[in-house]
Amino acid sequence: MRRTPLFATILLTLGLGGPGHAAEGAQFDGSALKPMLQSDNLVFNGVTRSADGRVFSPFQRQTKDKGIELGEWKDGKPVAYPNEAWNAWKQGDDPAKAFVAVNAIRMGPDGDLWVVDKGAPGLGDAPLPGGAKLVQIDIAKNEIRKIYPLDAAVDEKGFIDDFRFNGRKVYLTDAGRPGLVVLDLDSGKLRRVLDNHWSMIAQRPLTGQGRVLRDDKGKPLAIHADQLEVSPDGKTFYYQACTGPLYSIETRWLDDEGASDEERAKHVKLFAPTVATGGTAIAADGTIYSSDTDALRVLKIAPDGTTSTLVQDPRLIWVDAMWIDEEGGLWIPAAQMNRTPAMNGGEASAVKFPTTIFRLDIGAMPLRN
Predict the structure, then answer these.
(1) Is residue 368 part of a domain?
(2) What is each CA distance from 279 to 20, 149, 179, 180, 357, in whole angstroms?
(3) For residue range 289-331, what is the model confidence (pLDDT) as tens digits?
(4) Beta-ladder partners of 228
(5) Where is coiled-coil annotated (predicted)?
(6) Domain assignment present for 366
(7) Which domain range does residue 85 map to?
(8) Are 39 and 78 in contact (CB under 8 A)?
């Protein structure tokens, strides 16, 4: 792969496999973390909350064809959402009409719940025909409002990972075939941009708690384009491979159908020296919160890229997709994904239950884009 001067600068900034730099003393200690939700037998990899307080999570099945993919937390327990049928997919069923493998969710600016289904039954598996999709759910009626098929932008190596809104555009990262998918919600048109650009490609194996993670075949894991955020004014797109660092590009270069990837590449900038990351969130003032899966902490990244530690605690094992609520609380799911067989070399699960979603009062206003 081509090594650029910027790439060399990144290596000098980050070090190899280090826990991160430019971070000073923690703003909060573990006593400020409030456990909100726990499960004695389920593994989740994110959380989102509606304006009226309903909480949802995507779940990772630990047994083939068993367990829920999307759940709403009710009375402290997750319940299949929007119904059992959408969570009952098994090999041989139509992958277009049920959740095969939910990877990311969020409340959209319209108040609906939006869900990315990567459409592949296992990590590293090829998406099934019709399986990769973005699903819009009306939470008032608890029913599917619309399905956006993603097949046209995903090949056998594709792994649609996460997504963000920018007006009527949706940006989705492809962590399998490194690149970004741009979806026009009005037309349903899909475009790929920055395919195989070096900023989209993981430069080192994924790590968690200081060790290299391996798939169920024992191969070191490389998760490419993954975390992403859009600035409050909609003009800047932030993104990274799972192992960082965090880059930025003006959204106009993503939205311009006439621009070539060669032209887009000229506008990619290093934004912050993040490290191995499970998930992010962004506040209305442009501050990005990003997890550190090795040092078990959450980083606070200012709009100028300055990075500091927000909170660090041994319970924050693989913090995944976070969420900021209307009361200024940061919801922090300690997902323990690095302890699951899919990331633990196929060995028996080392997850220590209960899995927990914490809340930290940071006094930030949420950004809904």
Answers:
(1) no
(2) 16, 24, 18, 17, 13
(3) 999 999 999 999 999 999 999 999 999 999 999 999 999 999 9
(4) 239
(5) none
(6) no
(7) 5-361
(8) yes
